[in-house]
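User: Okay, second chain of the day. Same drill as before: sequence in, structure tokens out.
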Amino acid sequence: MSLTDGGVYDNLGLAPLWPDRHPDVSLNVTDIDSIICCRAGYGLRFDPPSLSFFSRFSSAFTCVHNRAQNAATKRLYDLHDSGRLKNILVPYLGQSDSRLKFPPEDLVTREETHDYPTDFSAMPDEWVEKLSRRGEQVTKALIREHWPELLNKQSSSS
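Assistant: Same drill. Structure tokens below.
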């Protein structure tokens, strides 16, 4: 298992996992056939119109960042559709809770977490716990729905 975080440039952390990486130009090339890519995401934005230079610059940066994230997500699905990746799962923290087929009883709801700002400031421990717990819960719920054999593998190896 590899865990990655791409930071600002490769926000989804997918670059080290692409199956078409070549050892002549990339470090640590491994064969990956399945990816779970958790997306904190930006959801739908309803920002006011940008009037000043700095707000327009910020809007432009956000737009480019979102487009790069969308392109990486599309590439993930294209690699799956072409057979280069066997399994993919893209849990999204902002997902509607009502669409989860197998939510846990103690689900941290979307409403409790969806408006946390991604402004690069230090995150209080309570938010780290809340967001990471929701991410784990949504991921497990989606695995139960779309990739249950992964859970069967996990329980048989424990």
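The chain is about 40% helix and 5% strand.

User: Thanks, on to the next one.
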